[in-house]
Design the sequence.
């Protein structure tokens, strides 16, 4: 057996070890059909992390789906009132956010369906911790949907509540401040919500902070008690995997009703384990019982360094920073220098793209402004600075920790002064922001024809290529010089300090200290 394990890739070795672990804990192996009827996945589309499902027509004319999700299939094939403890080892097929193509995802995971007690939750969390530990050193971050809703329910307006939810998910205190002030919340509550966005850390300390922030909130005691029970159960049982709390981890409230969690491994840029309590999915399927489970994604585990010395090496890690080329990058460097984060003179050789400060253990990459979020999202950089316009356009899965308050401008619709839209026609819009433009006009219920340009956007309406443009506007001088004017403002933009999801967990102390030093200089 050891000889076999020695020649298998890490993904397969970890899969075998996890299957043995789950079987020893009394879980039954569950094998899914490769295909299910598409209608079922369509009815539960918002539960899926992927936007599209691979479909085909069967011999009998039914529209079938190639497995996009395992949990949905297990729930569909579980009778109401039936109690189950199952594990699976399956490939699913989803649309990749990064490449735009479909990809195979190797998942191994488990589900418990039936009466879910606190001991059941603790058992599942314990198996999630052990699963991560099989693969390496890491972090399991807990959140709670009901507790997050207790905080978000202070917003009476639904649009403001959704804006606050987005701010919490991105760990953006500046965005939370904005929506809290707009909602007319008291200074005390503005402060609480600001702290909630920044809250993240080891379960003991984070739970103490949460209890203070939730003081006086209706219905907060039950979810706090659930988190406290987990803390007590695992207080001395975590070795290579830390147990943390971070309420920025949120999911669809229509399906998830309680504890949710994500697992991260050192060396990988995004979460590899996703789980939670999803009683509401069962309710939608006519099942009054509860359910909790998780899936671990194995595809990227071959990239981890599994050498024994890698886990024990005591090395001081560098902090990698992606900076936009040009004036904004220069301004960020000056800001970091004023904050005492970086030494003077490291950018003297203007021909280089990588600059290192050995004294401060910080490394800068100069990249195209529109690429900063990609470098951070994929983990090549721990943090970076990007305009809000870039983040809105790409929807990169990064944390937005700080508004640096420079590079201010507006995303706006502009056109000729006398332009009037014809409601009977599609509006022709030229832009280098197709995603922002599409979303903005969808909210207006306005049909548009997009023309994707990369430069000299102002020319488009002058040459009648488009009716209007969507672009960033700083002073408006260029528009005026070309006989154009702002017709509608969409969203303000400025430079934002962003962070990779995994780096936030594993380099939290350094990044938090950096953010605080920069905050004091702006």
Sequence:
């Amino acid at each position: 057996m050891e000889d076999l394990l020695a020649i298998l890739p890490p993904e397969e070795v970890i899969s075998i070890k996890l299957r043995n672990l789950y079987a020893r804990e009394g879980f039954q192996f569950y094998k899914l059909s490769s295909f299910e009827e598409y209608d079922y996945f369509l009815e539960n589309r918002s539960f899926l992390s992927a936007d599209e499902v691979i479909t085909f027509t069967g011999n009998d004319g039914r529209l079938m789906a190639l497995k996009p999700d395992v949990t949905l299939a297990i729930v569909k094939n579980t009778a109401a009132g039936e109690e189950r403890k199952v594990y699976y080892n399956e490939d699913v097929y989803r649309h990749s956010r990064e490449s735009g193509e479909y990809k195979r995802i190797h998942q191994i995971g488990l589900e418990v369906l039936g009466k879910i007690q606190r001991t059941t939750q603790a058992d599942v969390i314990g198996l999630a911790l052990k699963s991560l530990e099989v693969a390496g050193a890491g972090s399991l971050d807990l959140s709670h949907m009901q507790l997050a809703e207790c905080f978000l329910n202070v917003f009476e307006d639904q649009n403001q509540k959704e804006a606050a939810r987005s701010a919490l998910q991105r760990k953006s205190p500046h965005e939370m401040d904005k929506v809290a002030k707009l909602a007319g919340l008291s200074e005390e509550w503005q402060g609480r919500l600001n702290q909630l966005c920044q809250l993240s850390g080891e379960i003991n300390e984070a739970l103490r902070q949460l209890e203070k922030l939730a003081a006086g909130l209706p219905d907060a005691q039950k979810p706090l008690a659930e988190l406290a029970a987990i803390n007590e159960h695992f207080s001395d049982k975590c070795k290579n995997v830390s147990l943390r709390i971070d309420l920025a981890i949120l999911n669809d409230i229509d399906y998830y009703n309680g504890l949710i969690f994500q697992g991260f491994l050192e060396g990988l840029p995004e979460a590899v384990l996703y789980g939670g309590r999803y009683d509401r999915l069962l309710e939608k399927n006519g099942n009054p019982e509860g359910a909790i489970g998780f899936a671990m994604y194995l595809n990227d585990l071959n990239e981890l360094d599994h050498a024994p010395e890698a886990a024990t090496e005591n090395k001081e890690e560098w902090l990698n920073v992606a900076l936009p080329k040009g004036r904004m990058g220069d301004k960020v460097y000056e800001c970091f220098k004023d904050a005492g984060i970086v030494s003077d003179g490291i950018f003297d050789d203007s021909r280089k793209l990588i600059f290192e400060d050995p004294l401060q253990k910080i490394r800068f990459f100069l990249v195209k402004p529109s690429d900063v979020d990609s470098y951070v999202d994929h983990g090549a950089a721990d943090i970076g600075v990007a305009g809000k316009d870039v983040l809105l356009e790409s929807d990169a899965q990064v944390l937005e920790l700080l508004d640096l308050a420079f590079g201010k401008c507006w995303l706006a619709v502009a056109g000729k002064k006398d332009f009037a839209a014809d409601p009977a026609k599609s509006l022709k819009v030229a832009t280098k922001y197709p995603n922002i433009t599409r979303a903005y006009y969808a909210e207006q219920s306005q049909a548009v024809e997009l023309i994707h340009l990369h430069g000299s956007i102002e020319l488009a309406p002058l040459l009648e290529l488009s009716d209007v443009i969507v672009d960033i506007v700083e002073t408006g001088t260029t528009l005026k010089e070309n006989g154009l004017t702002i017709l509608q403002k969409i969203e303000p933009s400025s430079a934002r300090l962003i962070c990779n999801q995994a780096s936030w967990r594993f380099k939290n102390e350094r990044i938090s200290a950096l953010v605080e030093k920069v905050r004091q200089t702006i």
About this structure: The chain has 21 helices and 23 strands.
